[in-house]
């Protein structure tokens, strides 16, 4: 079902390209009108503008997710889910890495936007156990990182005080299989100091508010007002934040990402130690200092797992080494009160920073994946900041925002316009502000602010004042740099894209050096607490640029060092210590490389007011943000430009199936194929232009048509493929069935022949050397031993008759016609039925109305059979001797098979062999009394009765029957198996 727009809130236009009047004022009015009605999302083509509503709008539930899932971008109104869906579909259809760049000033809603993106991706992807685990870990990482990395500021109650780039890696099915989080420049100075009205990191207040009584005692927790590191801001709570509930969520998140309870307790113990460190004070003693409260340092030592004396020594003194080699000397230099306080604060900041890095590593370990796949990156980084007192942290934050603004300008304004020129498209250039000179002011080598800052940190006499003097000297003519009048000589001004910012140079060098004395590092690594020891021993792997490494190596060889392992071309710590600015610049450089390698999507967040009030609009503030975000210029470029552009090859790859002229395969010139396709679909020529390598489509309507036809065609092809596959499978099944039947027939025939040979050998063992052989008896076919020669196993009357005799388990095994010798020595036609237990002589008669056609004359159990007697001549007579009853004398041409099968049934039922005797004179009991069969071999038989067999004749005598038998084959003649 197609998505339907909400007509009840049809306010302004949801895409600014559709504005009737193109001006900055009209743009602002449209944003304002929509914001007042709770419509916080507006777009400029693919760029989403998001305004912080400061209240819940109820537009992020599962119903909304379903509305945006899989929809084309022109079908649906602007929403954060739309950006997420577009990135996800592009990753699957194009097979290219995607990134979502969320930018805006602090408090504009960037963190919330990133969380909704994660929520959407988690909802629309698969649900296997491993996928669910990865998704749950990724989602739970948010509250954990917010607890340790976010804080209440004057502008935002949940301000990110670190940068985060979350990469989610997907498998071939499009499901998350892992990911990676990269964190940038945690504002660790907040640990020791906050502006009035601001708070420290959330986790400290969560710990103090949410801990149980046992935990408070175990971790020596105090009320927040009693901590020096918390009471400077005079703010202990924040609107919309429940610290007690958040602490439970943080604990659960720790469990999900693999932090066990033991490590959790160590983390909380460490956090308590950090807070108590702020309460440590020092008294002057000579040129040095001593700790004021030894009980306090003992508590801290216990929480950190270190010796109290070592902690005190590391805080009030510093080990300095002089000399080299064997002449090296170590001196314990006492620290004055000011130096001791600096060491205390540096130690607290270092512990917290390393703890935060540890948590990020734990999250990454729980979601890391060994294989390399396609990713969607979500960048949630601190917004542009302008405070009353802007220090090194704000300088770095604003620097990274400058670089992100440069990406936006490069890819949405500069590159797009350059592309029109390169492709030969008619175009009127749009002017825009390029902030590249400002970025170069900060990062350019060898003369840039960061490079000069690192250089100044190398000089022992370097300080903040000498640093600002250098800045004023080198950049006095730079349009993006200004120096401040004499009375504020400690400040300098950078003209950023978001406005002028006054930076206070005080503390720049110390924060850039990020010095932590070795005494404190050695102290931490000696801790009996595994967490403290681990985070201080951990050394992050150096991320190297392969191309730069090659250049360095080539330069190294050029300088005459043949043995490249003999010298290091990477500066050592003594020559050039790794500074905070140097690290951050490398991180930003790596981030930019990742972003430029992805297909970008933009979310531009706007903060509507400074009062954090729901749906309140500050015209001046919003106008300022629209201006420095370059939204108006972006609108001009988009409105005058084309909504869609793609290379001819990729366009054909996506749409070749919609036209008969390009289906089923187009192997010629891609541009010619595009032209044929568009002509066949009757798309007007004014709707598109051909560049040198790309097609440009001005309006979305032709794209609607192309996508509709593509979807319909894909459904047709899917049906065709499905039908073809089903036909193939059915035919394959049919052929396999025929083959299986043929194999089964052959196998059954082989089994039958094998059984026949087995039974033939058994019959041979019975008769060979005991009885002359009949020619027909030795020529046994492969079906000779079928047993049920009368085919009565399924005759209903036979089945019912046997069930009456034996019960429901009765089963016919043998049936054969015989010629019975009566008590008067007459030959009578009869039949024998054999089950698993009994022999039934039957007397056939004409079928009656009730269906009966025979009468059971007697029942001979196997257990009552004494033996079976045969003559030694070539006849078919045999006698079944029955204990305590008259015997049964009969003749059948199937005697060999019958006796073989009967002996098997007898053996199976009674677990003993049937006794078979051979004698030319067989005595038996008839119903009249003792009687005898006398067998005589004769050369010929006079034919008296045409119905009588030719190989014997019978003559009744007193109490006996004389049977004359023609000669047969020798007694040693063996049976043979012949075909059916």
Give a quick rundown of the structure.
Residues 588-610 are annotated as: Actin-binding. With 980 residues, the chain is of the alpha+beta class.
The shape, in one word, is: elongated
Radius of gyration: 50 Å
The overall pLDDT average reads 86
Query: Could you name the CATH homologous superfamily of the domain at 772-978?
Result: Pleckstrin-homology domain (PH domain)/Phosphotyrosine-binding domain (PTB)
Secondary-structure-based class equals alpha+beta
> What is the percentage of strand-forming residues?
15-25%
Care to count the β-strands?
A: 34
| Main CATH class of the domain at 772-978 | Mainly Beta
Spans of at least 5 consecutive residues with low confidence:
1-8, 560-575
- The CATH topology of the domain at 772-978 is PH-domain like
Counting H and I runs of at least 4 residues, what is the number of helices? 29
* Gap between N and C termini: 68 Å
**How would a textbook summarize the main sheet?**
9 strands, mixed
CATH architecture of the domain at 772-978: Roll
What helical percentage do the residues reach? 40-55%
Region (Actin-binding): 588-610
Protein name: Myosin IA heavy chain
Domain Myosin motor: 11-711
Binding site for ATP: 104-111
């Amino acid at each position: 079902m197609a998505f339907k727009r909400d007509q009840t809130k049809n306010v302004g236009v949801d895409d600014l390209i559709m504005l009737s009047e193109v001006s900055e004022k009209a743009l602002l009015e449209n944003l304002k009108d929509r914001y007042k009605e709770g419509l916080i999302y507006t777009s400029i083509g693919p760029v989403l503008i998001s305004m912080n509503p400061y209240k819940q709008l109820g537009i992020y539930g599962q119903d909304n997710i379903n509305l945006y899932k899989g929809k084309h971008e022109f079908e649906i109104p602007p929403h954060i889910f739309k950006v997420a869906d577009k990135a996800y579909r592009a990753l699957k259809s194009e097979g290219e890495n995607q990134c979502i760049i969320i930018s805006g000033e602090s408090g504009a809603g960037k963190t919330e936007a990133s969380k909704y993106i994660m929520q959407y991706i988690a909802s629309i992807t698969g649900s296997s156990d491993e996928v669910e685990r990865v998704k749950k870990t990724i989602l739970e990482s948010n509250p954990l990182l917010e607890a340790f990395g976010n804080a209440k500021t004057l502008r935002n109650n949940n301000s990110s005080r670190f940068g985060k780039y979350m990469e989610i890696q997907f498998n071939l099915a499009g499901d998350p299989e892992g990911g990676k989080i990269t964190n940038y420049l945690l504002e660790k100075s907040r640990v020791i100091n906050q502006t009035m009205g601001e708070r420290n990191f959330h986790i400290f207040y969560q710990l103090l508010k949410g801990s149980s009584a046992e935990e408070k005692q175990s971790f020596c927790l105090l009320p927040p007002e009693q901590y020096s590191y918390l009471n400077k801001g005079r703010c202990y709570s924040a609107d919309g934040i429940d610290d007690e509930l958040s602490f439970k969520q943080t604990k659960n998140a720790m469990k999900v990402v693999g932090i066990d309870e033991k490590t959790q307790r160590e983390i909380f113990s460490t956090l308590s130690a950090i807070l108590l460190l702020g309460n440590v004070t020092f008294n002057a003693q000579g040129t040095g200092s001593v700790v004021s409260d030894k009980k306090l340092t003992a508590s801290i030592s216990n929480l950190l797992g270190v010796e109290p004396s070592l902690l005190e020594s590391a805080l009030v003194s510093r080990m300095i080494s002089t000399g080299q080699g064997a002449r090296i000397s170590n001196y314990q230099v006492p620290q004055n009160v000011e130096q001791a306080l600096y060491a205390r604060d540096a130690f607290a900041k270092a512990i917290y920073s390393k703890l935060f890095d540890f948590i990020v590593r734990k999250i990454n370990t729980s979601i890391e994946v060994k294989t390399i796949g396609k990713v969607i990156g979500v960048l949630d980084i601190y917004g542009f900041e302008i405070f009353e007192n802007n220090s090194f942290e704000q300088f770095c934050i604003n620097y990274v925002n400058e670089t992100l603004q440069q990406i936006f300008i490069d890819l949405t304004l500069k590159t797009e316009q350059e592309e029109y020129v390169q492709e030969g498209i008619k175009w009127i250039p749009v002017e825009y502000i390029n902030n590249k000179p400002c970025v170069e002011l900060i990062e350019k080598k060898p003369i840039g602010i960061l490079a000069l800052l690192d250089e100044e940190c190398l000089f022992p006499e370097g300080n903040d004042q000498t640093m600002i003097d250098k800045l004023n000297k080198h950049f006095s003519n730079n349009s993006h740099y200004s120096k401040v009048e004499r009375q504020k000589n400690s400040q300098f001004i950078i003209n950023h894209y978001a406005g002028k910012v006054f930076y206070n140079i005080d503390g720049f060098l110390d924060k850039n050096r990020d010095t932590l004395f070795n005494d404190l590092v050695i102290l931490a690594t000696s801790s009996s607490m595994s967490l403290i020891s681990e985070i201080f021993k951990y050394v992050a792997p150096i991320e190297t640029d392969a191309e730069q490494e090659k250049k360095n190596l080539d330069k190294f060889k050029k300088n005459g060092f043949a043995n490249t392992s003999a010298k290091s071309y990477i500066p050592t710590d003594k020559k050039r210590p790794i500074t905070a600015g140097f690290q951050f610049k490398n991180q930003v450089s790596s981030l930019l490389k990742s972003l430029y390698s992805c297909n970008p999507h933009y979310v531009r967040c706007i903060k509507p007011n400074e009062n954090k009030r729901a749906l309140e609009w500050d015209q001046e503030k919003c106008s300022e943000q629209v201006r420095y975000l370059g939204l108006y210029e972006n609108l001009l470029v988009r409105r005058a430009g084309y909504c869609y552009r793609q290379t001819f090859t990729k366009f054909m790859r996506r749409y070749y199936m919609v036209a008969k002229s390009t289906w089923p395969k187009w192997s010629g010139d891609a541009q010619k194929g595009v032209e044929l396709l568009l002509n066949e679909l009757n798309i007007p020529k004014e709707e598109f232009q051909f560049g040198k390598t790309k097609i440009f489509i001005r309006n979305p309507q032709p794209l609607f048509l192309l996508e509709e036809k593509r979807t319909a065609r894909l459904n047709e092809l899917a049906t065709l493929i499905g039908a073809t596959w089903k036909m193939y499978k059915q035919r394959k099944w049919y052929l396999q069935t025929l083959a299986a039947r043929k194999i089964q027939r052959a196998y059954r025939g082989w089994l039958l022949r094998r059984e026949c040979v087995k039974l033939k050998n058994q019959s041979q063992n019975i008769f060979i050397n005991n009885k002359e052989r009949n020619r027909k008896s030795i020529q046994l076919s492969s079906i000779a031993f079928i047993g049920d020669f009368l085919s009565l196993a399924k005759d209903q009357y036979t089945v019912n008759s046997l069930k009456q005799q034996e019960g429901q388990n009765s089963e016919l095994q043998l049936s054969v016609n015989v010629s019975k010798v009566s008590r008067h020595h007459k030959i009578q036609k009869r039949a024998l039925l054999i089950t698993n237990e009994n022999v039934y002589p039957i007397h056939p008669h004409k079928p009656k109305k009730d269906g009966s056609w025979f009468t059971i004359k007697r029942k001979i159990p196997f257990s009552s059979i004494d033996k079976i007697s045969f003559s030694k001549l070539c006849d078919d007579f045999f006698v079944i001797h029955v204990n305590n009853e008259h015997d049964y004398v009969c003749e059948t041409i199937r005697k060999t098979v019958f006796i073989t099968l009967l002996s098997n049934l007898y053996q199976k039922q009674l677990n003993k062999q049937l006794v078979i005797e051979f004698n030319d004179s067989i005595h038996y009991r008839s119903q009249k009394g003792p009687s005898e069969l006398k067998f005589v071999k004769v050369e010929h038989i006079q034919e008296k009765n045409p119905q009588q067999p030719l190989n014997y004749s019978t003559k009744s005598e007193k109490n006996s029957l004389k049977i004359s038998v023609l000669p047969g084959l020798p007694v040693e003649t063996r049976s043979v198996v012949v075909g059916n």
